[in-house]
Amino acid sequence: MPRESRDTLFLLAVVAWVILPHAEHLPLWAPVLAATALGWRGWLAWHSRPLPSQRWRIGLLLLVMLGTWWSHKTLLGRDAGVTLVVALLTLKTLELRARRDAFVIFFLSFFTMLTHFFFSQSLPIAAAMLVGLLGLLTALINAHLPVGRPPLATSAGMALRMTLLGAPVMVLLFLFFPRMAPLWGLPTDALSGRSGLSTRMEIGKLNSLALDDSIAMRVRFEQPPLQSELYFRGPVFQDFDGREWKPSTPEDLSGQVPRRSPPASLQVSGPALRYEVTLQPHNRPWLLALDVTPEAPKAPGTEPYITTDLQWITQRPVNDLLRYQAVAYPSFRYGANTTGQQREAATRLPAGRNPRTLQWAMDMRRDPRWAQADALALSTAVLQRLAQGGYVYTLEPGEYGEHTADEFWFDRKAGFCEHIASAYVVLMRALDVPARLVTGYQGGERNALDGYWVVRQSDAHAWAEIWQAGQGWVRVDPTGAVSPGRIGSLQRLQAPRGLVGSALGQVSPGLLQTLRSLWDAGNNRWNQWVLGYTQSRQFDLLRQLGFESPSWEDLIQVLGGGLGLSALASLAWVAWQRQRQDPWLRLLGQVHDGLKHQGLPVPAQAPPRTLARAVLAARGESGRPLHDWLLQLEALRYAAQAPQTRTTTPPAAPTLSALKRQLKPLLRSTTA
User: Fold this and answer.
1) How far is CA 464 from CA 382, 419, 590, in A?
2) Which residues of 204-225 are buried (b: 16+ CB within 10 A; e: fewer)?
3) Which of 323, 311, 315, 239 is nearest to 281 (CA)?
4) What is the spatial distance between Cα 296 and Cα 307, in angstroms, rounded to a whole number?
5) pTM attached to this predicted model
6) How far is 225 from 444, CA to CA, in rounded Å?
7) Strand (E) or helix (H) holding 2
8) 159, 569 in Cβ contact below 8 A?
9) Using CA atoms, how far apart are residues 15 and 111, in angstroms rounded to an integer?
10) Which residues 6+ apart lie within 8 Å of 656 measured at CB?
11) Dist CA 153 CA 159 (whole Å)
12) Mean pLDDT throughout 572-594?
């Protein structure tokens, strides 16, 4: 294969690798066009065919502009801009004729690499772009080797060395370049994650989240908690229309009614549980906190406040990876002073819904055993019915109709946590017990490699709270009565595995779990030390370096000093490299520099004999000593060695060190 074809195919492969992760973000026609254009250009290079005419390229360009406008209704903005960049990059390959065109493709590809981080800053994307960077550097270096047929492996080795040499400067810039929010971090409109929770809960919706195995947050505890204590509080729902649950005070979730201190009725007891949360972006204003966290979590750049329902809210949605520290007290009481009006609101039920559940509640109240029973006694009876009545905790309960509680209690007897908790709250309200629904996350999985608890979207959960006189709101998790393993031993409904995961699970379940733990630990390190490296952590690093009150000026000073040291180290390395040069070539280079300093124009690659003639022509007899010196230098390298005999002794030739001592006086005399 001709070198031009080989280099073109390699560059096309690198371009395809760079744009491949964008396939899921682009309109369908864009990746199809990119694949077609790159395949077409590769076919032309393989068969050494001529490139398409200018008419073809202009026509394709117009189609790209029209397609972008049709898909995004604009040519500006992130999505439209990325679509245009990817399409124009692939079209540029159709006019790849000279090195100039290759350079345009190189730098368009570098820019395209950066656009991936508009959508995701995950570890896989970073690793893929590192491979793309090495590929582009290899192609760029190869383009600067125009003579012969240098192996791509040689260019790849040079690219790897360049990357390693630049790594210290990259690390220095990462550590000390000032973080200037909101420029640093994930843009607001670039969210790819989702919370798994919502400001409303429709019966039958949360079960789809059990299939979502993505990570919601990671938690690190100073002391391992009890598994049954891992309740992370989210939205609290009180209003029910028969199908959908809504919060009673939606203004609490929008940031309009800030309550910066916990309710006065909150009482905590027992040992404190200190923990740190790394929360994934979810585009919601709430912080997931362990029940119950009375003091505001320490989250940099935010001022969270607490609602009357003990949910922590931030002033703006969480659109970036957020890490915060907090202290929880698993043993607590609150709401004992709830007013009669508030209790009455927590017993309302929609008219005409769930008649069989209402009749069951009336029958219980007529029973002398339950006529005067309090909330906890009634709850115990209901939980006993759940535990012994043949109810099943399942991912596929089927589609529920209009009377969701009736269907659960009397017909299906199967459901996910939302069905169980909702039916329980409806029954308790029918028994005239104030009750409400709480959503959040329950449980998690501890990674033995790094000690973090991984809470996934499949850990999304719904439970209940009932009001008991003298105690206030009491947590009740009716799912635990149906499936104790869901709460006690943290058994989970597993998301369906792919082909590879299923095969590994059949061969070695332990291997699959180990690989998953390794991957989670690696992702956690990436989140903690790269994505989670915020301004506050920069200042913490400066404090460790001895700065008492770090500031922006200190960051700039440390960065400038570090870059200066890097420059000095580079100069020292260059000087060391020059010392490793052939001494004969280094001495010849000194002659070149000396003659240029005297104003004598000499070719950069002129050998000693050419220099000798130039010196004699320019200086006459005054340059004769330097002329003879240059001939001796040439003879030292290139003269044939005379055969030695026993009767003759060859004349002593000047050594390189002797010639070096003679050079400076000769240059001075030539100048004179």
Assistant:
1) 13, 11, 86
2) bebbebbebbebbbbbbbeeeb
3) 323
4) 11
5) 0.61
6) 11
7) none
8) no
9) 12
10) 583, 584, 587, 636
11) 10
12) 78
Amino acid found at 381: A
pLDDT tens per residue across span 514-562:
776 777 777 767 766 777 677 777 777 888 888 878 877 888 888 888 8
Residue 87 has pLDDT above 60, yes or no: yes
Q: Collect contacts of 149-153 with beta carbons under 8 A, ≥24 apart.
A: 149/3, 152/6, 152/10
Helix (H, G, I), strand (E, B) or coil at 434: coil
* pLDDT at position 326: 93
**Residue 300 structure tokens:** 């940099």
The token duo for 165 is 């040499």
| Strand partners of residue 322 | 279
Question: Would you tell me how many other CB atoms lie within 10 Å of the CB of residue 568?
Answer: 10
pLDDT at 380: 92
Give the integer Cα–Cα distance in Å for 461 and 448.
24
- In DSSP terms, 276 is beta-bridged to 220, 325
Residue 72: both structure tokens together: 């995004």
Share above pLDDT 70 across residues of the chain, in percent, rounded to a whole number: 85
- Sequence-ordered list of residues with C-beta below 8 angstroms from that of 163, at least 6 positions apart, any chain: 133, 134, 137
**Secondary structure element (H or E) that encloses residue 228, with its range:** none
Residue-level pLDDT at 211? 56
CA distance 465 to 234: 13
Give the residue among 143, 170, 189, 473 at the shortest CA–CA distance from 308. Answer: 473
pLDDT for position 7 = 87
Q: Cα–Cα distance between 656 and 632 in angstroms, integer?
A: 10
Strand partners, 275: 221, 326
Distance CA 11, CA 135 (A): 8
E strand or H helix at 305: strand 305-306
Using DSSP, state whether 401 is helix, strand or coil.
Answer: coil
19 contacts 112 by C-beta, under 8 angstroms: yes
pLDDT tens across 193-204, in order? 333 577 777 775
Backbone angles phi, psi at 542, to 5 degrees: -65, -35
Rg (CA), the chain: 37
Residue 77's pLDDT is: 83
Pairing of strands 392-393, 414-415: parallel
Question: What is the per-residue pLDDT across 313-346, written as a single tens digit (0 to 9) for each?
Answer: 988 888 777 889 999 999 999 888 888 888 899 9
